[in-house]
Amino acid sequence: MSQKFTESFSKFGPQLAKVITVGSVGIGGSVWAFKNCLFNVDAGHRAIKFSRIGGLKEDLYTEGTHVMVPWFERPITFDIRTKPRTLVSLTGSKDLQMVSISLRTLCRPREDKLPAIYRYAGTDYDEKVAQQQAEKAKYQVLKAQEMKKNIIIKAQGEMESAKMIGSAIQNNPGFVELRKIDAAKEIAHHMAVSRNKMVLNSDSLLLNLMSSGNERLAIEKA
């Protein structure tokens, strides 16, 4: 009996070993394929897929188990839960001191924009976008401060100009006549280069200088 078993094993042993090897490889390959063909999306997360053939897909995968093609596709998971972010930035104060400002925000991504978010900023979008928004807000604050300074300086200049004009008029009555002549020259220059045709008398062109002169002569004769 044992001799027959030995003869049968020696006869079918190589074939049996080959069958066992092929079966083991097949089972192992099936387990590997089954394991890598599925991916899970946890609660509070969403996933998109990247394909080596077609690139980033627009399909959105919710919680649960989904199918993918091994090696050709890979899932990209996003956490869509609301998360707090604290932004810290240095800015200047009115007394020329640097102060630290912190801002706490709550943010979460839009589910329908996850492919675009991944293309633009990747999975760590919140840190990148928050930093950009902080720099933008800092720039807007500095811009507003500079505009305020410019307005104050302009108002002070106009006030000084008004004081100087008032003083010049008070000390020299002919200053107004000189300003009228300058204005008349500027108007005449613009009319000369313009294509429009206009007919004006000398009184209108010189801003009524002739009439004021005639009135002054009449007063002196009287």
From TrEMBL:
Swiss-Prot/TrEMBL keywords: Membrane, Mitochondrion, Mitochondrion inner membrane
Give its localization.
Mitochondrion inner membrane
Q: Where are its TM segments located?
A: none
Instruction: Using the record's annotation, list all stretches that form the Band domain.
Output: 37-198
What biological-process GO terms show up in the record? mitochondrion organization
Known Pfam families for this protein?
Band_7
Respond yes or no to whether keyword Cell division is given for this record.
no
Q: Which GO terms describe its cellular component?
A: mitochondrial inner membrane
InterPro entries found in the cross-reference section: Band_7 (IPR001107), Prohibitin (IPR000163)
Q: What family does the Swiss-Prot or TrEMBL record give for this protein?
A: Belongs to the prohibitin family.
> What name has this protein been given in UniProt?
Prohibitin
Origin species: Perkinsus olseni
